[in-house]
Design brief:
Layout: H1 3-13, H2 18-26, E1 30-33, H3 66-77, E2 84-89, H4 111-120, E3 123-127, H5 146-170, E4 174-178, E5 183-184, H6 192-206, E6 215-220, E7 231-232, H7 236-246, E8 249-253, H8 267-273, E9 277-281, E10 283-285, E11 287-291, H9 297-308, E12 315-319, H10 328-347, H11 351-359, H12 363-373, H13 378-388, H14 396-406
Helix pairs in contact: 1-13, 2-10, 3-10, 5-6, 9-10, 11-12
Bound molecules: L-rhamnitol (RNT) and zinc ion.
L-rhamnitol binds next to loops.
């Protein structure tokens, strides 16, 4: 008996169909964030990263051009099993010789991305970039300056139109996430006015009709950022309310809440009131530090929620972290594989058994089964899954070492 067959029989003895789990996993897309590949730099070659987010580290080999970023992504994608999407930001526009500001962007600046995605048959997701720009230093959509607001409203509308084209041309619905850094370092006197202005700006942005077949919009809240410790205009209550009112997606970023607050517990509440949500799967360490996603209890809890309640079509999974202190391709692969491992573990849970124990009030049994599940032969199933998806198992690590030697180390 092969070790896979043995593992399969162990799962089957507790009522879990391994084949079914694997085929369901294959259908759950994970969106890979392009910005891990170049420390959120983009291709505008101008301003520094701003907006209260920070990449630390200066590991050699950062992608410096669109070509390098896409070929690094190609390589990373080849090491990640299952269905992948790629998430890009407006600052990854390629406008050729034209110098277009963010409010002037059109789909023509993204044809290289579209062609690349089409060739790989993957979907693109999108984000307006309302940071790292001279007009983003003092608020964007909530700014007290009408000219600044107008600029960022135009940018967001331009992005929604571009995203609609992604969806149409690729035949796969794009998810566009709207996050702005607006906030205040110290205690503001007026917490209301910026929120009123933000709401008006958003109303204008979403008054433009884009077919939902092609683009879905999400709004992302945040508790605090660097330099915005005391107040953010786009708080959780603000966007939860706004998303519900407008029928938008709410984006829950794992690093955007109080350090003891977890997004796994928010999913079932949010989905009682919203059709769909977006996740930014990240790992905060003491703060919203965007560390590489590990196979933590919280990651598992997120995956468990998605699987236990059959939310796979209603929860869009995106990764969001940036670590410039280690090999950036490994960072992508570790996080994406962990997301999929967590989903697979959730799919291999003896759900009926646990639900039964809970229903009968036998909480010791519920806890015991959950704990025993941690040491089931998961590894064999994961390996078989990778093999079926034509991606390496443990050996992916050496493949990255080789790529570092052959490709990344030549970038000086
Ligand atoms: C920032 C938000 C936002 C960004 C990306 C680059 O705190 O998490 O999602 O990380 O859009
Ligand atoms: Zn995020």
């Amino acid at each position: 008996m092969s070790s896979f067959d043995y593992a399969k029989s162990v799962y089957s003895s507790i009522g879990v169909d391994v084949e079914k789990a694997m085929s369901r996993l294959k259908e759950i897309p994970v969106s890979l964030h392009c910005w891990q590949g170049d420390d959120v730099s983009g291709f505008e070659n101008s301003s520094e990263l701003s907006g209260g987010i920070a990449v630390t580290g200066n590991y050699p080999g950062r992608a410096r051009t669109p070509q390098e970023l896409r070929s690094d992504l190609d390589f990373a994608l080849s090491l990640i099993p299952g269905t992948k999407r790629v998430n890009i930001h407006a600052l990854y526009a390629e406008c050729g010789n034209k110098k277009l500001d963010r409010n002037e962007l059109t789909v023509d600046c993204f044809t290289n991305w579209i062609d690349w995605a089409a060739q790989k048959d993957i979907a693109l997701d999108f984000n307006p970039s309302s940071f790292s720009h001279p007009l983003a230093d003092n608020g964007t959509l909530s700014s007290a300056d009408p000219a600044v607001r107008k600029f960022w409203i135009e940018h967001a509308i331009a992005c929604r139109k571009i995203a609609g084209e992604f969806g149409k041309r690729l035949g796969k619905t794009c998810v566009t996430n709207h996050w702005i850094p607006d906030g205040s370092k110290d205690t503001p006197f007026d917490r209301l006015a910026p929120r009123e202005r933000l709401m008006e700006s958003l109303d204008e942005i979403f008054s433009v009709e884009i077919d939902k077949k092609y683009n879905l919009d999400a709004v992302e809240c945040k508790l605090f950022g660097i330099g915005a410790e005391s107040y953010t205009a786009g708080s959780h209550e603000f966007y939860m309310g706004y998303a519900m009112k407008k029928g938008l997606l709410l984006c829950l970023d794992a690093g955007h809440f109080h350090p003891t607050e977890v997004i796994s517990d928010k999913i079932s509440s949010a989905l009682l009131f919203l059709d769909e949500i977006l996740l930014h799967v990240s790992r905060g360490v003491r703060w919203d530090s965007d560390h590489v996603v590990t196979l933590s209890d919280e990651l598992q809890a997120i995956a468990d929620e998605i699987i236990r309640h059959n939310y796979d079509k209603r929860v869009h999974i995106g990764l969001d972290y940036f670590d410039g202190s280690i090999n950036r391709i490994a960072a992508w692969v570790i996080g994406a594989r962990n997301m999929q491992k967590a989903l697979l573990r959730a799919l291999l849970e003896p759900a009926e058994m646990i639900a039964e124990a809970e229903k009968s009030g036998n909480y010791a049994r519920r806890l015991a089964i959950m704990e025993e599940c941690r040491s089931l032969p998961f590894h064999e199933i994961w390996n078989a899954y990778c093999e079926r998806c034509n991606v390496p198992g443990f050996e992916w690590i050496s493949a990255v070492d080789k790529y570092e030697k052959d490709v990344l180390s030549l970038r000086k």
